[in-house]
Amino acid sequence: MSLLPVNEAMDRLLSRAKPVLETETVLLAHADGRILAQDVAARLTQPPFNSSAMDGYALRTQDAPQLGSIFTVIGTASAGHAFDGTVGKGEAVRIFTGAPVPEGADSILIQEDAELLDDNRIRSTFEVVKNRHIRPKGQDFAEGEIVLSKNRVLSFADVTVAAGMNHAELAVYRKPLVAILATGDELVQPGSVPKSDQIIASNTFGVAAVARNAGAEVLDLGIISDDKELIGKAIERAITAKADVLVTLGGASVGDHDLVQASLKSKGMELDFWRIAMRPGKPLMVGAIDDMQVLGLPGNPVASLVCSLLFLEPLVHKMAQTPARRREVQAITETDLKANDHRQDYMRATLDIRDDGVLVAKSFDKQDSSMMKTLAYSNALIVRPPNAPPLKAGDPCPVILLRT
To answer: H helices then E strands: how many in the chain?
Structure first.
């Protein structure tokens, strides 16, 4: 099987993926970042009454035809404590922000514009204008008004207005479930004491982070040794859990110890393709078991994470209906780059901004796909298309942002 170009591999992966349309109800406290599954209408009117926008005095405009008008203060209104009465001719009510405007009053004279006199009286020192400093009933929203529309990505502002509309819960789309299966006799969990022929398993944590950040829930199936029966049981766990995506880490090739592909096929996987014309990440596998998408990632940590960013992230975005991140931007290379071969290359690099706003990318000298530290130090990947000619320092080059 020939190597598949990266863009064609992406198109084939995403073409068979479908958005998750199952819904669930979540508490408002857990709704931030979720995708709204139905329109949300206000259950009440806000504000529910004409309210004061300032501290001052509620009075009648007609009683203040000019500066120096005198009013008798007949009571007080504060938030949660309305004045029980009507404002009449020459009367005023001391009022505080958020309090209901008393019946009869049609303006607020702010306290800075009122001169205090004796005998509970005040004198206006500023023009009184009808409806000034009054928030009318329903100014924000009215009962029954649809304020939040279906398919909206809920923000901090959205959950705030939902609470104000008296919703304690919201209907959202279920997050796609991504099951992650790591295989290899050589792998042990972080915190373990590895034997001389073992290494610490690291890929799961980065791959899981990519999936979660794109909008998925993650099911960690653990580390499974190179045993076809045990791998098969782990795959069955993903099927039983109704995972939307199964990600396997390592073992996707066809060597004597690479049992993942065979195990998946024994469980009914329809293989679409494997082996991509890219570096790092050539042994990438894509298939499906019924409605569960299967993405087999390379075992090398850097290759695994680069493929997660390129393939798993957009897959989850599509299934979760979350907006895709814009990662590819244009930069210039700081150093000369040699001609590329037939595989699309993703080179770890640092990206800086010059004083004139130009992005400058500098690749690391060593690009071995097992070197995790270099990836941690990188904030971008320089993209070298297949058979790209050499670049001189200062030449333009596309880059993929690792942090957005």
So the answer is: 8, 26
Residue pLDDT, tens place only, 14-42: 999 999 999 999 999 999 999 999 999 99
Q: What is the pLDDT of residue 173?
A: 98
Strands (E), 213-291: 217-224, 245-249, 270-274, 278-279, 285-289
Q: What is the mean pLDDT of residues 306-312?
A: 97
Q: How confident is the model at residue 256 (pLDDT cuts 50, 70, 90)?
A: very low
- Strands 70-77 vs 91-95: parallel, antiparallel or unpaired: parallel
Helices 313-320 and 203-214, interaxial angle, to 10°? 30
> How far does CA 221 lie from the centroid of its chain?
25
Q: What angle do helix axes 6-15 and 313-320 make, rounded to 10 degrees?
A: 30
pLDDT tens for residues 192-224?
888 888 888 899 999 999 999 999 999 999 999
User: How many CB atoms are located within 10 Å of the residue 291 CB?
Assistant: 10
Q: Is the separation of the CB atoms in 377 and 366 below 8 Å?
A: no
Are 369 and 317 a contacting pair, CB within 8 Å?
Answer: no
Neighbours of 70 (CB within 10 A): 14
For residues 295 and 308, the answer to whether their CB atoms sit within 8 Å is no
Alpha-carbon distance of 49 to 47, in angstroms, equals 5
Contacts of 374 (CB under 8 A, 6+ apart): 302, 348, 364, 366, 367
Assign 49 to helix, strand or coil: coil
Token digits of residue 232? 């098969």
Query: What's the pTM value of the predicted model, to 2 decimals?
Result: 0.88
The CA distance from 349 to 73, in Å, is 71
84 Cβ neighbours under 8 A, 6+ residues apart: none
Give the pLDDT of residue 1: 55
CA–CA dist 278, 290 (Å, integer) = 28
d(CA 46, CA 158): 15
pLDDT at 250 over 70: yes
**Spatial contact of 397 and 382, defined as CB atoms under 8 Å apart:** yes
Cβ contacts of residue 10 below 8 Å, gap of 6+?
Answer: 310, 311, 314
Q: What is the DSSP string of 239-256?
A: HHTT-SEEEEES--S-ST
Percent of the chain with pLDDT over 90: 89
Q: Where are the alpha helices (DSSP H) in 16-171?
A: 156-164
Nearest to residue 62, comparing CAs of 20, 100, 90?
90
Q: How far apart are CA 67 and CA 115, in angstroms?
A: 11
Cα Rg of the chain, angstroms: 32
